[in-house]
């Protein structure tokens, strides 16, 4: 029996603000990400997103490289501030043309475009009215969604709503989607995003009925740190606020009573209108896309133990009285401290499929590393090959377990700028020749993993 379906979508991912650069070209208006590096909370000594990998001016060459690797699919995000100029919804025609040209070029190379509607780059005109923290956000996202579906709907088969909706609530200030001086109720913010997502799904059904649409959160299995029953309570708690609440709302149409009750225990609540309840009930997705980097291990915290943690999308998520994430000493780590857990990937795939029984697409997975460009133009990233080999083997086992999978689009197709750790944390199959502050020539170099992935796709993963 084949390990992967015949038409499996092998490819890779990027996001607009981390990849395109050209923040002042093509009629793009400003976004919060353009100046994230100027915020006091942004780590010192690393680049921001103004130039990124200059994909905006290299897109044809970049698609050619993807085609050479044999990509069947490419997951990228459309930049909201490239498409809409202001809160009146004025359209930037140049932005529409840029993505239409990109999509056509992908089709020319037989690559299926998988479009993320929104990947962190909130336009300034939205931030000025409160960003993701107000109800107004859902109205603005609806205006934007309609423009996307009307302009690209005839070509796009797979839409992804909001990248890592859960990370807006859990690590919003670290990834820059919430300004560090803005006071927020993370759960109300999450609710606005859930409603925005639901409205987009409803609109998609209306405007492009033959397209498929799904959410794209960051999901990972949560292990209890020990066999102490209380650590298992912490596991259930963190599982809920890290994973299931975001998928329950879109797949089941409501929040779990345990979640709502948990909020009350923390002295929090979310305001949900009757109209919103109806929208949330009627916006089921066609598939689940999710990003997976590693697993999480938790214990029941004491007040003292909560003080020490470094926090981002993969580490340090903790909640007083609920659970505290701790290091898993059974797992190796990347150079940037993220735990590596290929078997956890199989576990996560099984849990998600078992719970919702919808086809799954992996929209991110990968290893950030300080790759070195050798004098002969080569990049020997065997650690990346090893990372992928192990994860893809586990994905094959998950498929053999019975998980239904559509595709695998790891992070990232080509080097780009990390959310909060600069360009030196590289993820691509292709090296982009620039440093944190020296833009050099932005030349593209194929890493060893490029040739490895090409071979794997050619064999539809059978050689893994
Ligand atoms: C995800 C985001 C991506 C991406 C990736 C790697 O959370 O969706 O945008 O960058 O993580 O994370 P980082 O860039 O922080 O290394």
Automatic annotation (TrEMBL):
Q: Write down the superkingdom of origin.
A: Bacteria
Q: Which GO terms describe its biological process?
A: carbohydrate catabolic process
> Mind listing the UniProt keywords for this protein, alphabetically?
Glycosidase, Hydrolase
A Gene Ontology cellular component where this protein is annotated is: cytosol
- Which parts form a coiled-coil structure per UniProt? none
| Record-linked InterPro entries | GH (IPR017853), GH_1_N_CS (IPR033132), Glyco_hydro_1 (IPR001360)
Q: Which GO terms describe its molecular function?
A: beta-glucosidase activity
User: Which stretch is the leader sequence?
Assistant: none
Family listed: Belongs to the glycosyl hydrolase 1 family.
Q: What is this protein called?
A: Beta-glucosidase
Species the sequence originates in: Mesoplasma florum (strain ATCC 33453 / NBRC 100688 / NCTC 11704 / L1) (Acholeplasma florum)
